[in-house]
Amino acid sequence: MITTAFIFNWNISLDEELITPFVESSLVKNIFILTNTEDYTHKSSKVVSLVTDEPFSSDTIKKIISRTETSYLLLVTQRAQIIPGQFGLERMIQILDDTNAGMVYSHYTVVIRDQRVPCSVNDYQYGSVRDDFNFGPLLLLSLNHVRKVIDTFDLIEGLKWAGLYDLRLKLSAVSQLFAIKEYLYNVITGDIGTITKHTFHYLDPRNKGGQIEMEHVLTDYLKREGVYLSPSSGTFHDERSEYPVHASIIIPVYNRQKTISDAITSALSQKFV
After folding, report:
1. In a domain, 264, yes or no
2. How many CA atoms lie within 13 A of 145 on its CB side?
3. pLDDT value at position 64?
4. 103-112 and 115-119 beta bridge pairing
5. Hey, is 235 helix, strand or coil?
6. Share of residues in the chain with pLDDT > 90 (%)
C-alpha cells in the first residue's frame, strides 16, 4: 500500500460508490474524505473524514500533506465516480517513478448514461499557468517532490480557494508535471458539466474572490520566475481629433478554434460609452 487517497467531497452527502474502487485497491493505504462535517463514518478502517475550512484552501493543502504517510498522494478533485481501469493506478505510479515527475495525470473516459466520451489531456509546459488547466479529476503526486516545494518556497498562507493552484505552480518549478497519453480511468456521471468548467467562468462576478486569489498566486509565481512586468501607464498625445473607430481589439490565440468564435462574438457585442 503505497498511496493515500484524498476525495474532495465538500458539503455533499457521500455516495458509497464514489470510494469503493479505492477501498478495494491494495495500493491505497488510507482514504481521507474532505468535508466540513465530522459525522461521516465508514465500515472500512481505511476511510476517515478530514474536516477542512474549504476544499482547495491553503489550510486544506497543508492538512493533506501532513496526513500523508505514503510515497504518493492520490487526489480526486471533482465529485464524480472514478473507476480506475485494470492496472490504471499501477500504471500511474510506474510512470511517476520512471519520469521522476512531481505529478502525473492521464487521459480518461467519461461515461454518461451508456455513452462513452473520450477526454484527452494536454502536455504541461513551462508557461501553462491557467488556474483551470484540465488535468482531469484524478491526480497522482510524489510526496518527495511536494516536500521539496515546502522546503524551497513554503506555501502562501490564508488562501481560501487557490491553495491547490499555489501548490501546482510551485510543484511545476521543481519537477515535471507529466501527461500520460493513455486512458487509465473512467468517470461515471450523469452530466459532463460536473467535471468540466465553462471557458469564461472567470468572468462570472460570483467568482471574483477566487479570481483575485488566483491572480495573487500567479503574480507570486511570475516574480519568482523573473518574468513579471510591473504595470505602467503614460499619456498618449495625438493631434488628430477624429478616429474611424472607438477601439481596436486584439485577441492573441493559439489553437483555440473551439473558443475564438465566442470571444469574437462577445467583443463585437460590446458598446462604447
Report:
1. no
2. 24
3. 95
4. antiparallel
5. coil
6. 53
Q: pTM of the entire structure?
A: 0.81
SS3 (DSSP) at 236: coil
> Would you state the pLDDT for residue 59?
94
CB atoms within 10 A of CB 164: 22
Contacts of 211 (CB under 8 A, 6+ apart): 202
The three-point CA angle 153-159-165 to 5° equals: 65
What are the tens digits of pLDDT across the range 202-221? 445 557 888 899 999 999 99
Helix 163-174 and helix 208-225: axis angle, to 10°? 20
Sole residue written with cell 465529485: 79
Answer whether 70's CB lies under 8 Å from 5's CB: no
Residue 267 lies in a domain: no
Q: Which amino acid is at 36?
A: N
pLDDT of residue 18: 78
Q: Taken in order 152, 133, 128, 185, is the CA torsion positive or negative?
A: positive
Count up the domains in the chain and report the number: 1
Q: Domain containing 28: what range?
A: 3-225
Mean pLDDT of 218-230: 92
Least confident of 29-33, 63-67, 256-260: 256-260
Residue 108 within any structural domain of the chain: yes
| β pairing state of 115-119 and 72-76 | unpaired
CATH of the domain at 183: 3.90.550.10
Question: Could you identify the residue written with the cell 481596436?
Answer: 248
What integer best gives the mean pLDDT of the chain?
Answer: 86
The three-state secondary structure class of 107 is strand
Distance (Å, rounded) from C-alpha 21 to C-alpha 187? 12
- 255 lies in some domain: no
